[in-house]
Amino acid sequence: MQNSTTSNKNNVFREFCKYASLSVLAMAAISCYILADTFFISAGLGADGLTALNLAIPVYNFIHGTGLMLGMGGATRFAVCRSRGDHAGGNAMFTATLWLGAAFSLLFVALGILCPTQLAQLLGADGVTLPMTRTYLQVLLLFSPAFILNDILLCFNRNDGAPQLSMAATVSGSLANILLDYVFIFPCGMGMFGAVLATGLAPVIGVGVSSLHFLRKKNSYRPAKILPKPAHMRYNFALGFPSLVEQLSAAIVIIVFNYIILGLEGNAGVAAYGVVANISLVVSAVFTGIAQGMQPLLSRAHGEGDEKRAGRIFTYASCSMLALAVLLYAAVFFFAAPIAAIFNGDGNAAFGEMAAHGLRLYFLAAAFVGDNTLLCAYFTSVERALPAHILSLLRGLIVIIPCAFLFAAIWKITGVWLSYPATEALVCAVGCALFFLNHAKTKKARPKTEPSPQMRQKNKRSPIAPFHANK
């Protein structure tokens, strides 16, 4: 009996390592879309180009956040349906997700066609940076359907037992982006247009690779010939909302910080913050990768009623996150100056010093960011959307904005850097309280006897009412 339990734990650990490692690589590759732009733009267009990029980045967060909301929300419900044998429900969920993706894509494309200049001005672009910011925004918005579809397919493939393909799709897109960035900016001399064109083509390549899951006929989901229903779509919003808010919070933080830093340090300060913000994308992507690797396994365990396995999966994710947070902060702390120098194409000493100082203070938040990301994913995976919504809103709106203005008023630019770790630490405390409260309620409601293997198998086959094929 003991050997059986040990074997089960080892299987769960191996499965978690497989999903989490592939997902971390995939998310790190996605973050390289923008990081590659940061490096090549700083080298080819200088500090003004870097400022324009940082002003446009929030729109990328909005697009990517929308794709993650639809993909994570739909795929989470799909995983629960799949674990219970409700294939019609899974297909209905995928179909509703595609419809919503098309609707949001039309909205973003319309913005790119009708008002890129007004949007660039709204984000803070001035006479120097307006042309480059407008170009980046317009092309990015026109490629939004590719970004959104790429996110949807990545999430569904990962939940359909194909994490390797999801990783391959993102890595191939990212490598293509890096290569095309260099070709378009330097040999072709296409400037900012070349940088954003390379970024836009990356998800097109990702979609092509992800589509192999259909061509090889290994997928267990497909579009259904039905119109989407509100009962289907609400899962995209309810379960995917934390993923959207996580990206929106990053966008709002960038917008607010750009506004404050423009008043304190001007365009040079915004360029320095651009380095900090883009390195932050990579760090956040690592934690998001752990969370997304955990999510399919956690949703499956939840759907089967196996709480012990769910608990082990979350423990593995938390330990992995903490170890990576320590390593990442150590790397940033000791190599802040060389990291800043990579993006200092003009050799500006004040810019380099400001960026290095910001990196060391800003990334004090690393462990708190990781914990908050995992907690949001945990609540979503077990279909407890409200705590995830609370944490997401606290991080993205309720705490960070007043904290940034207050700290900036007291400690100037140092206060701006410190407002981020202070916010994440406070939200982390709230998240831990919600987690233990939820755990206590679940334990109280738990049956005194664990479900038998036969009952777990019955749970796997049990259809979910809203997704019967005849509805």
UniProtKB/TrEMBL annotation:
InterPro entries hit by this protein: MATE_fam, MATE_MepA-like, MATE_MepA_subfamily, MdtK-like
Region (Disordered): 445-471
GO CC annotations on file: plasma membrane
Keyword Cell membrane applies: yes
GO biological process: response to antibiotic
Compartments where located: Cell membrane
Example of a GO MF term: xenobiotic transmembrane transporter activity
Alphabetic keyword roster: Antibiotic resistance, Cell membrane, Membrane, Transmembrane, Transmembrane helix, Transport
Mode of membrane association: Multi-pass membrane protein
Secretion signal span: none
Transmembrane regions: 21-47, 59-80, 92-115, 135-156, 168-186, 192-215, 236-264, 270-292, 313-341, 361-380, 392-411, 417-437
Family: Belongs to the multi antimicrobial extrusion (MATE) (TC 2.A.66.1) family. MepA subfamily.
Record-given protein name: Multidrug export protein MepA
